[in-house]
Fold this protein.
Amino acid sequence: MRITHATAQGPRPYQEDRYCFFSIRKPQTIIAVMDGHGGREVAEFCSCNLKKIFQDTRGKIADRLNEVIRKLAEATPRHYEVGSTISIVSATNHWAHIAFLGDSPVIIRTAGGKIDISPEHNVRSNDAERLAAEKRGGVYDNGYICKSLGGYGLQLSRALGDCEMGSIISREPEIYRQPVDQDSWVLVASDGLIDPSHQGTGNVEQIADMLNNGKDASDLIEWASHEGLQDNATAIVWRP
């Protein structure tokens, strides 16, 4: 098992990305990326507390991931006006279990070579998520889900923190699994890596090609910087 990791602040005057990884028992590894918005506090809280919370859970891995995010969600909305995405992967030699809220991508080369990309909980790019947020009382306004027209809004339909958004955004994670083998890799990243110049083009195929050719997290961040990085960018790459 090999993990590489890298992060870059880009041209922004602050770094709101946080990440962590740790082993529970061989060969199980937990990898997580949190992309903060409005401030770093929620992402920081998650990175500091994720391991302990995970170690306090029991049961099947999907249930444990759900419980971890539930506990983080309970701890953060009541105290933080700022927010964060969270993407967690539990990786072993045979399976990658994924749990996430928000739009920090998880990209996996699965057993057999298929490239799997996690969905986005983003009201601009996911109509189903936008409609669900509207049913919870949100108003869609020029690419953002808001409490009222012209009010404070988010692109995200699911996130931690953001106490001002109340029940308009969801705290429920999406959880699924993918098979992996000796030729697989798992990338957990912040969205600044996938669209570094914020032109809406996305670069998943190019990133997958780099990883298929043995590149690591530092190579991905260097590539994003050359592409005109406009955001914080973080990458963690796991290989069995």
Remarks:
- The chain has a mean pLDDT of 95.
- DSSP finds six helices and 15 strands in the chain.
- The CA atoms of residues 24 and 176 lie 19 Å apart.
